[in-house]
Amino acid sequence: MITPRFDELIHAPTRLSLVAFLAATGWADFGVLRDSVGLSDSALSKQLTTLADAGYVEIRKAFVGKRPRTSARLTADGRTAFDRHVLALQEIVAGAAGWWPRPAGHPSSRGAASGGQPAPGGVSP
Amino acid sequence: MNDQIEPADAARALSEIGRRREQVIRRAAVPGWYWWATAVLTIALSAAVESGRGHGVLAWIGLALFMVGTLVISGLLSRALRGAPPRRDLVAPGPVPRVLAGIAAFAAAVLGVGLATGLSLKSAGVPWSGTIASAVAMVVFVVGGQILMRYHTAFLVRRSGGRG
Questions:
Q1: What is the pTM for the complete model shown?
Q2: Which residue from A24, A93, A97 is facing B20, i.e. has the nearest CB?
Q3: ipTM greater than 0.90, yes or no?
């Protein structure tokens, strides 16, 4: 079972777009990623390196004929971190709406139990 | 835990994630140029076959060009779609028969319109009936193909909701 966990590394706007795109695909070409997310070559390269250093992205360099071709995909760790981050975001939004079904004893459920709204941003790790 | 994130920020992030998922699905749709290129090739083949009656060289040249053109189009299409293919589990399993029925209805409409037009024109003694019928069928192919693709993509986007 995946538990929610907010991930600062993924949440940065550019990386969120990049990881969200990668989460929906398998291997994605560097050029497709660049054009889809709207980044320059150097900016994309920097973001991919950051994600690769965290173990979230795997980068593959191959040659098609004589042309180098770089692709990237999320690793299993990256996918898990993304899934947990999405759950954390959903919990924040749902918590603010006041209907998120929280288990007994959950820190955020105390506010709801006492008649108040659960604190926004009450995401448990 | 992160207490710094406002619900509005989280909602924006979720919306961005959904938008990127949709982008991947829409990228995988057969592009508009494919329908036009295939239509042009088919009409050209019909014209070559009809004009080649009596001296078959033109028909053979037309057929060869059609085959080369089809290979080029397939290669370009495959290259365009290969850049970021959607994950297999991105879309929830759906009613496959409905999708297949849509494709079958589309193929039947193209063939039906082409055959009906061709036979009608031929029986009326209209010259170039095959080419005209092919052009009419290809109008259905181009318009219908793009509508079908839009419908199919929207269907996939709907079914992908909530999946990573």
A1: 0.76
A2: A24
A3: no
